Amino acid sequence: MTETTHKTPTTHPIRPAAPLAHLDVLISGASVAGPALALWLSRYGARVTVVEKAPALREGGFAVDFRGDVHRTVLRRMGIWDEVHRRQTHMGRQTIVEADDKERVDLPAFLMSGDVEIFRGDLSKILHERTRDRVEYVFGDSIASLTEDSEGVDVTFDHGAPRRFDLVVGADGLHSHTRRLAFGDESRYLRFLGYYVAGFDVPNHLGLDRTARIYSEPGRTVMFSNYDGDPERAGVGLVFRSERLTYDRHDREQQKKILAEKFTGLAWKHAGRAMEGLERAEDLYFDAIAQIHVDRLSQGRVVLLGDAGYGATMGGIGTGTALVCAYVLAGELAASRGDHRVAFPAYEAEIRDYAKGCQKTSGNAGPFLAPPSEKKIRSRDRAYRMLSSRFLAGLFKKLTERAASDLTLKDYAPRPLEDYASLNRQP
């Protein structure tokens, strides 16, 4: 086990009037949603612990994007807008090709990358950098049990000593362990959407430079992409249509076997490179394209945030939604001075329709990336060609931002941005 702990320093004291100075909060998950919430709660004076099963921050991962006024406003209020832009991917053209690699159509950059795009791992680093001096991070451990009473929650861990907290937040993703402990088995909440997705790194055989090439056959798609300009490295994405599969989420070799079977016989001239890379991949990501639907987002003193409560594997603007909802959850806790009986229902009332609207867009992710028939592939590509028109491109951009912007943000925090910046200044 690797454990990293950061105690709250005395160099950036919270104002005495901080509304959450009496509150101890445990957050499960150190990817994006958890540290985002930690940032806000620590600004309001709470003592925050983030526990993460992985031994360290997870690097790399898929690129995530932000789009629309609500995303921009939250990033600015967090004080990370400039840093996100400094670390953005600058992804360029993404081209759909024929089997002989002849170019068929280019995808508009905004369609795939939004207003700004960044690797999930880079965003996680930014949030960790901004919180590590005021938030306790415990890596290499996980919640084992939760026992709640009228005054708090007793928590045991797989490795660490038992502790007691006022509140517990499940921000540990689509397959949330915290949700299972407090709300019941995942099978009650996960809705399979008929597709699977995989991703892994390979050598940059195609010489891509912040570009991508995409090849589709009915029900399956292969993508080669280079997001960071590294001349040596590229990423492969695989999407395929399927019935529900039974497999071990922790068995990488079993997942490789499934993918090899599903992608045998592809006509694209570069498909063999992808399959060779799959055999050697040590960083394989593999999951169903699915959504999480819970009846309610809180159970007593436990509340769900991000993918754990309203996630989608891809296409649901999940990272932007998580940052927005972290802002709202922390704000409602501050407004209620830590009374979860008031804050949790208010948080849910504020974000439920918004989160559902964003999540709804993910229902088209599988058919969009891997259309089920040759006719639908051609229809998709004709639609992309139409988007080369400036008028239609602008109209479509507004449509893609509609769900992400369909929320009126409250201004929970009266502090000016300068105060936020001073609290987050690096030593």
From TrEMBL:
Molecular function GO terms recorded: FAD binding
Pfam families, sorted: FAD_binding_3 (PF01494)
Organism (species): Streptomyces aurantiacus JA 4570
InterPro entries the record matches: FAD-bd, FAD/NAD-bd_sf, FAD_aromatic-hydroxylase
PANTHER family: MONOOXYGENASE, OXIDOREDUCTASE-RELATED
The name this protein goes by in its record: FAD-binding domain-containing protein
Residue stretches making up the FAD-binding domain: 23-338
